From TrEMBL, chains A, B:
InterPro entries tied to this protein: CinA, CinA-like_C, CinA_C, CinA_KH, Competence-induced_CinA, MoaB/Mog-like_dom_sf, MoaB/Mog_dom
Residues annotated as signal peptide: none
MoaB/Mog domain sequence ranges: 4-171
A Pfam match: CinA
Biological source species: Mucilaginibacter boryungensis
Name assigned to this protein: CinA-like protein
Family classification: Belongs to the CinA family.
Amino acid sequence: MLAEIITIGDEILIGQIVDTNSAWIAQELNKIGIRVKQISSVSDDRSHILKALAEAHNRAQIILITGGLGPTKDDITKRTLAEYFNVGFTENAEALENVQQLFKKYNRPLLEVNRLQAQIPENCEVILNKNGTAPGMWFNYDSRVYVSMPGVPFEMMYMMEDQVLPKLKASFKLPVIIHKTILTVGEGESFLAERIADIEDSLPSHIKLAYLPKLGQVRLRLSGYGDDEVLLQKELNSFADQLLFRVANVVVAEEDISLEKAILNKMEARGLTLSVAESCTGGYISHLFTQHPGSSNVFFGGTVSYSYELKESVLGVKNETLWQHGAVSLETVTEMVEGAILNFKSDYAIAVTGVAGPGGGTPDKPVGTVWIAVASATKTVTKKFTFGNKRLQNIERSAISALGMLNTLLREVEN
Amino acid sequence: MLAEIITIGDEILIGQIVDTNSAWIAQELNKIGIRVKQISSVSDDRSHILKALAEAHNRAQIILITGGLGPTKDDITKRTLAEYFNVGFTENAEALENVQQLFKKYNRPLLEVNRLQAQIPENCEVILNKNGTAPGMWFNYDSRVYVSMPGVPFEMMYMMEDQVLPKLKASFKLPVIIHKTILTVGEGESFLAERIADIEDSLPSHIKLAYLPKLGQVRLRLSGYGDDEVLLQKELNSFADQLLFRVANVVVAEEDISLEKAILNKMEARGLTLSVAESCTGGYISHLFTQHPGSSNVFFGGTVSYSYELKESVLGVKNETLWQHGAVSLETVTEMVEGAILNFKSDYAIAVTGVAGPGGGTPDKPVGTVWIAVASATKTVTKKFTFGNKRLQNIERSAISALGMLNTLLREVEN
């Protein structure tokens, strides 16, 4: 089953916003066995939209359209769709009620332009927009499904999850597809591939293995295709178990979550707490953790110690250590991580100090040199990394490497 | 002048990566007077690519293609382009030299697949890739320009800035376009619009004003179109000056940079230093600053104090303050910011404490309640905000609001 995504709106074409909707939609469609053939971004222009609709009609059975549904003059998606389908308009009672409720909730007078949002092409079914005033629209036309949704991400996402995806599943005979994701950290794609080559070779043709690498992490995703869901799940689990056993030392999670969330989950389940002493990562590791709800159950916080002074006063790094060995050294990172455990009273701690660049490098400590330490009350592990010369990449790589080291230390205690 | 962007590769169509390249390219093209008519993402499939090329040929004079230039079998952009142009291949000495140098630098043996990357269609001019092995390609064909570049963002960006954009400017008679951006913070789009309505109304038709809002900030962008660059610049400056004078109280920068970078610049120029005490922003403010090269000249660091204990031990917030007024209170945020100045020895400090959500709200301090303080040695300013119930948005809004308050405090001392 093939789909096409059409995004309508000048914001994307002038680069004012990045189109994150399409990637999200594509992922969700993939999960239920629908493949995206093309993504087209077109302008708020009648003839251009008509052309895009006609081209999509030739390529796909499912055409998902986002954007151009606002109340202002430049939003012409709805009337262009009516022209494409050659139909008139009708007022939809449910959509009107929805708009009225929204305006009532925010205590604003209902404007005529908003009332007009409840006018829809005669041939469509309304998809209620619980988060905004523009209704979504579902069209069956010439053996194809067209769905028009707002471009505002959370309005679109809610509609997709709540109504469009279930309706697509009900409308088409889609294959049963089951995914199982294993998150690993600290080993490159090609090394992993070598270690599991025999398992990969033994997969039946209806089960595929994908390597999804991202900055020090690799997600192994098994996707099974079939008719019998129960049987397929059983089969997939057995291959997943083989993979999990084989690469156990680098596995962080058996589900598709972020690395830091996996670590938070693991630590929370065991009642453990964590603090950080960040120098070159400058708050990025803290931000990774604290973006997740409930992180405060595990994460106490810590310090961003850019200056020598903060390393001394907050972490208790000795002045002579800093001057003898420098801020980027085994000795300093060790005192940082042990200072964090001591001062912040957490079970575990992470410390990072390095030269993120582009300035600050020296012959023996070039840009990209990073010392990382992880520690529990009884054990400290340190490691030196040599990354590249791109500041943001160095920050991200340092963070991921630190999380990988913490995962290893947590595993040691498990076993 | 119209352009089309074609991205090639299954990664985008399965939603594995978000296409950030296109937005960046569109922005850069806009700056030099080239408008993007359509963005199409297609799969690594010969006939699909050929179709997309033909369709783009009908719509645009400039066709920029990214992706599908890797050394593996699934990367077919190059040979499909040769088929489209109906030409053979030739080995390019410069491109080969580049690949060889790269492999030498990383001490890896040159594989045959990489040697093949120096094979290019006969009708193209090579665009050297200084950051990777796949050369870019420039084609003049049927009064149109086709440019093929790698999909790796930093390889593509370097090629665009270094070679493609200058070459486009030299190849086409493009209008003179000058932009001038004013960054403001702390006032909504519609309020700003009201304050500068008369200036906006007085703009000649060849100068446009755009409002680019983003999370508490609004960029005012004047774009002038004309033939005489010197004259146009003068005219634009005079309108910019009027705007700057009118909204001076909310202006952060007279160029298109990020809010935190503008503050770093301002503080560095005046030899001032900064530290932070972050609770609910959890390291995000520190990360904003430290992602910028040279931030250590201004930013000392600070603490991420999620727990009561860290607020006490590192910042010196009094135990009774926390228990009497709670962590999210005027009293606590004041002690936090003053503790930061005192303990971290910076000229200025920011403190933030709040309920980011989704949990942790109470009837009198619901999710979204955030106290922010900014301080110098002699003055402390505090403010309570009530944001919404989305955790990440609350974190970002808190950070932007804090930066806005710091900007105001810095301005007071200026004047």
